[in-house]
Write a structure and sequence with these properties.
The chain has 13 helices and eight strands. It has about 325 residues and is of the alpha/beta class. α11 links the parallel β7 and β8.
Length: about 325
């Protein structure tokens, strides 16, 4: 595979995962592997990421923990694993200056522990934002009990990145990897939860990023907006559903095709679309294919440059 010269490494990847030491041992391949197309946990090291990034013109990747996340029913185990993952992410960011950013995890659904981890991650580890999953067991992010977490993130004007997971209600077709159907649908459920529980309207200073072009949100936006006329829902979206969806950010992971982009561009302006690779859960050939597909879509050069780099710099100017 051709290696890009470092001078060509301009892209910023907001959807890039890590597998810290002990994470796979604690979580188990039996929980991770079935979720993805490959059917097994990918091999990963920071060096493997950097080599793939260099070959694909990626300057900086903002790292996060993918599904199935950290919560498996034991609160203290989740707290400890979360701290391990966050400290590891901060370590590789320091050890490879300029190559990795950090979306720190939270030990949800434990709200008190999550508030403490927000302070630790943002104040002591200097994380670039917070990475969350679209659901935690049977609870979605708009759950009123999670409101203190989002209020604190709003106070801090944080960037919050969401990655989908396999919620219990997603198990209708267990023979199909969750990443194919269930992930986009859980992203949609998370967005609807944040809409109609009033989190988006209340937390106007959070920059929200959603994976995979927003799941099915662009296609269903008008259908979802019909709910704003329902009693009890309208009060939670005083600005309207579509205006709230328009201010969110969406990444390109597994979505660099016109079937997805036409719907996404109908919903948001291009400056709310950010490059994402989904590496290593999507292999390097997928990363390469995404870069190539973006370049071949006939986008205006300024829009292409924006998606690959400039729009992310509005959220993370220090990457410049």
């Amino acid at each position: 595979m051709k290696v890009s010269p470092m001078s060509d490494c301009h892209r910023i990847d907001v959807h890039h995962h890590i597998l810290p030491p002990n994470y796979v041992d604690i979580v188990g391949d039996d929980r991770i592997g079935p979720l993805i197309l490959a059917g097994k946990t990918p091999e990963w090291t920071p060096e493997m990421s950097i080599e793939a990034m260099d070959r694909n013109g990626i300057q900086t990747a903002v790292t996060s923990i993918s599904a199935p996340g950290l919560w498996f029913g034991d609160s203290q185990e989740t707290i400890d694993l979360c701290r391990h993952c966050n400290e590891y992410a901060a370590d590789i960011s320091r050890d490879h200056a300029g190559r990795f950013g950090v979306f720190a995890s939270l030990p949800l659904p434990d709200v008190d522990a999550s508030l403490k981890e927000i302070a630790f991650a943002l104040d002591e580890l200097n994380a670039d934002g917070i990475g969350l999953l679209t659901s935690y067991g049977d609870r979605y992010p708009g759950d009123p009990e999670f409101a203190p977490v989002f209020d604190e993130l709003n106070r801090r004007k944080a960037t919050v990145y969401f990655h989908p997971t396999n919620a219990p209600c997603n198990q209708c077709q267990p023979e199909i990897p969750a990443a194919t159907l269930d992930f986009p649908f859980d992203t949609t459920r998370a967005v609807v939860s944040l809409l109609f529980n009033g989190t988006f309207a209340r937390c106007q200073d959070i920059n929200f990023i959603f994976s995979h072009a927003g799941g099915t949100i662009p296609f269903l936006a008008e259908r979802i907006a019909r709910l704003q006329g329902r009693p009890g829902f309208k009060d939670h979206v005083p600005n309207g559903v579509v205006p709230e969806l328009e201010r969110l950010y969406y990444d390109t992971a597994l979505s660099t095709n016109w079937l997805a982009f036409k719907s996404l561009f109908e919903l948001v302006s291009p400056d709310h679309v950010l490059f994402g690779s989904d590496y290593p859960f999507a292999p390097e050939q997928t990363m390469t294919g995404s870069v190539k597909a973006l370049q071949e879509m006939g986008l205006d050069p300024e829009v292409l440059q924006g998606i690959e780099r400039d729009y992310a710099l509005k959220l993370f100017p220090h990457f410049g």
